[in-house]
Amino acid sequence: MSNIRAVRGMHDILPDETPHWQLLEQTVSRVLSGYGYGEIRLPVVEKTELFSRSIGEVTDIVEREMYSFEDRNGDSLTLRPEGTAGCVRAAIQQGLLSVPQRLWYMGPMFRYERPQKGRQRQFQQVGAEAFGIAGPEMEAEHLVLCARLWRELGLAQNVELQLNSLGNAEARRNYRDALVGYLESHLEALDEDSQRRLLTNPLRILDSKVADTRQILDEAPLMADFLDDESRADFDRLCKLLDAAGVPFVVNNRLVRGLDYYNKTVYEWVTERLGAQGTICGGGRYDGLVEQLGGKSTPAVGFAMGMERLVLMLQDSGSAATTGVGSTDVYAVAVGEAANRTALATVEAVRDALPQLTIVQHTGGGSFKSQLKRADKSGATVALIWGEDEVSSQSVTLKFLRDGSAQGDKSGQKTVPVEQLESTLQAAFAD
Ligand code: HAM
Fold first, then answer.
1. 257: CA distance to ligand 1 center in Å?
2. Rounded CA gap, 168 and 409, in Å?
3. Relative to the CA of 81, which ligand 1 atom is closest?
4. Residue closest to 339 by CA, chosen among 287, 297, 302, 394
5. Domains parsed from the chain with CATH numbers
6. 386-425: per-residue pLDDT in tens?
7. What local confidence, expressed as pLDDT, does residue 411 receive?
8. Ligand 1: residues within 6 Å at CB?
9. pTM (2 decimals)?
């Protein structure tokens, strides 16, 4: 019978990778709560309509990337492809929007995309959404927060912030008409995908990677020339705030983002370290979405980052996350029933007293020799040994597996009364 394998684009994250994930999760949660953001945990499944109404009917995500299905009741449900829609739904439903609100979330998202490095069908995002603040200080807060995260993760050298403003709905409509007018005069030369988008979502053509299309876009009308006064003023203020905070950025007039709910500022943090999938974080303002989903008109700004991409960068940068987490300090070995009982109870007491140590207790029996071999393989610094002698004399033998002669006898061993075990271990791991 053939083995059952994981679904394409959905990955196992193995123990040697999880230290980087833990580092990322801990850093993100510490930084976000330090800025006053509260964590919200949201369902993975929502009504399909939530996403089509918010992300937009003619976006790639809604048109062809959603995992949608009917439940037994005949309702159309979807595995969430992103977190903003669910967060807004919850904020309205739970009455969280009467005061400015800062929320963050983390969890798996699902998109039926073509898998490649940095692009999965199940991937993790961490996102933050802030509701109730109309001015660009809000975007500035998110951007300095992200910049702090990159610094704390040691990634700041390799990321670039790109900013753009999409303007208000009218400005976007005017720009869209101008862009369509221009591109229609070059219809034949456009790639097939862009020809299709010209009818459905022309602003997305600005994102095209096709060389010929890009060349045509070089002469296209510029979004910046169509901005309404308020959006332009907000964007200028944001740029000044970022200058003052020392956050470098470049203005990218072609940046449009793949979701329809944005207005005014949009941004992406990009890196050259990951090949084609170089966007590690994207976000912007979406002042219309709360109302569009049935709430009271509420300004809103948010971002989300792709955690797999950040983990790839952490691995690539040789981050020290692998030391400390998950590595074994002490390996406990016992032969015989009485020794096993004593070892189990004593190791529990050591765990109470010295919670900073990682202690693995041998399981599955075997001779001293085979158990000590395992102890050595585990990478532990010290093996604790219980046999008949130790049980009867209420002692325990420590074997120093790395620099034995410094701490034990010739064979790196030392037997101590069990009451001295904790202090001996404390001394052994003092630095
Ligand atoms: P997004 O640009 O679609 O925005 O996704 C945000 C980030 O998630 C991307 O920059 C990327 O790092 C990561 N990502 C997206 N798709 C994949 C994938 N298939 N595999 C791996 N990583 C991926 C949003 O989702 C918006 N909800 C962001 C937002 C929050 N805007 C306002 N608030």
1. 10
2. 77
3. 25
4. 394
5. 18-168+243-321 (3.30.930.10), 170-227 (no CATH), 330-428 (3.40.50.800)
6. 999 999 999 999 999 987 666 778 888 999 999 999 999 9
7. 81
8. 82-84, 111, 113, 118-120, 123, 125, 127, 129, 258-259, 279-284, 286, 302-306, 308-309
9. 0.89
